[in-house]
């Protein structure tokens, strides 16, 4: 028994090891001994050993020493029983054999649902931690991201700990066929980078005050859902973010080596214990090593003596030394899980711009950009966490934050980028102010002073399930509107609405269309479902409905297969109606009141003489307009409806431009859509699908709708890309 004092708590937590009988039975299986053989070594009867196994009695302290000797361990391990002995069946890699019918998987298809992007990883892993937060104590879940670059002796020691020499033949086999399929090329590049540059990047995600991977190694439970299975989602509550069971695939997708190690501290004991439950999983494509075919995945663990031939690897209870060598040591004994992504890379960073930046960012060093630059990855993690989880990190009044998150970067154990706790008021100042005002009850009905927050109710009419006509009930979502912080909002654009539900992760970010040109910059927040308050009417039903309306990326609400099957093909129109009401309400809140000409301010302005700067000289030659803002919705017939604004550099000759609508796809060329309608709104003319601009124009606006007959797939299952291209012959 071991006592540990947990800082910040008012009581001492005492952890006891596993019951002696089940622990001894497992050690005998691991050592390949029978009860009769142990009885002979101890010079006792088999009945005495059987009584220990069944829990009818326990051995005397003097016999404990003899048992430790027979199991090849120390007497302390026998007394505490917080880890397995090292006798027999050592930790090893188990590779799933090839299928006898000749079937082959050339990679995990679930991993292709997401990009190898640390910002996508942050969104999915932080969402999972929020979903698994222990709610009884009222404290937030704490998540820490650690980037750790290993070189030299530290790299050699880690490779030895993961039995790299046993893995290398499998990586070599994948590299030999790398030219034939995508996963093999990624893995081959990851191995070459490690050897050629003498480095390996680890990305560890730790959460605390979470449930941990509880449950049996094989039976239904969270452990098996993450480690053993695909497309299985076992969430802890109705407000959970995930529903597809795909999010965990981002862990392996972010590893160029397809390797993730796991250490979990359980909130519910398994086999009588809670700490240092360790396992690893490797995702490789089908391969052949020494004439033996292997199906793909492999597991790093203790061979299960109950499996045929003791071949299948299961989780094991590791000691402190082992988790330290595997870079899996956790801080304290608070429940939660540590995921170690081995060979982390960030392919999306090569796009040269962030998700919220419209300008290309050149490589400062002038050389090849590095997908394993831990400083750049640190910055991208902080950016994504602040953008997507600012609301979960915000508290006020009686509402506490649900989340605390930090990011740090190390090289061979030494800190090179200090740990940074993500501050929502710094990342999203206006929206954080709005949410706090809502929690503290200081909102107003109309904006009259700087810093105020308007709160309005917006209805979401929930449909009846099963395709039945009618409305189940009306859920009142909460809309918050406040002025934007000038030059401080880091959300990549003002005049947007962030929509979120129970776990307070931003699901949808969208602009508000048809705003008056003189509108003051604002930011808005839409709280739906349990985010609007657990006591709000139909809050749980709204959670269920909107969760079903989210795609695997959980970044919008719209038509999905689940929504169609559980409600009806037209159920998404309830969400469209909510969006329309939100936009109308925002426009009403932010509209400037008209001033009469006799007001004092107007009279003073007429009396003033304003010195204006001389106009800048227009550049020689034609100038090229650029798409500045885009608002898109789906019409009743499934067409895309867009309103776009164009910015034009100063110049007298302006190049005509052709708007092109395309569908965003994961690979291959983007399918082009036809326009059913293209209309000029201001600052331009439309002639045969081409936008023409009068000389001296600086801004223009146009509207359009796509031709549904040119859509290759259902609109609500796609994303739209709009480009401006120079007109032919110009």
> Mind telling me the C-alpha Rg?
30 Å
Note the beta-strand portion.
25-35%
Shape, please? elongated
Helical coverage, percent range: 25-40%
- Rounded to the nearest angstrom, the distance between the terminal CA atoms is 82 Å
The number of helical runs is 19
Structural class by sheet pairing and helices: alpha+beta
Work out the number of β strands. 28
Query: How is the biggest beta sheet arranged?
Result: 12 strands, mixed
Mean pLDDT over the full residue set: 82
> Which segments are poorly predicted (pLDDT under 50) over 5 or more consecutive residues?
1-15, 235-245, 352-367, 596-614
Characterization of the model:
The chain is of the alpha+beta class and 730 residues long. Helices cover 26% and strands 26% of the residues. It contains 19 helices and 28 strands. The strands form 6 sheets. Strands 3, 4, 5, 6, 7, 8, 9, 10, 11, 12, 13 and 14 form a 12-stranded mixed β-sheet that branches. Helix 2 packs across helix 3. Residues 1-15, 235-245, 352-367 and 596-614 have low confidence and may be disordered.
Describe this protein with a few key phrases.
28 strands; single chain; 12-stranded mixed β-sheet; alpha+beta; 730 residues; 19 helices; 5-stranded mixed β-sheet; 26% strand
Compact summary:
The chain has 730 residues and is an alpha+beta fold.
How would you summarize the topology of this molecule?
Blueprint: E1 2-4, E2 13-15, H1 20-31, H2 35-42, H3 46-54, H4 61-71, H5 75-80, E3 92-97, H6 118-131, E4 141-151, H7 152-161, H8 164-176, H9 182-197, E5 199-208, H10 222-227, H11 249-253, E6 255-265, E7 277-283, E8 287-289, E9 292-303, E10 313-314, E11 316-317, H12 320-325, E12 336-344, H13 374-389, E13 403-411, E14 414-421, H14 424-427, H15 429-440, E15 453-463, E16 471-483, E17 496-500, E18 506-511, E19 522-527, H16 539-548, H17 561-566, H18 572-590, H19 600-607, E20 626-634, E21 640-647, E22 657-663, E23 672-673, E24 675-682, E25 685-687, E26 690-692, E27 699-706, E28 720-726
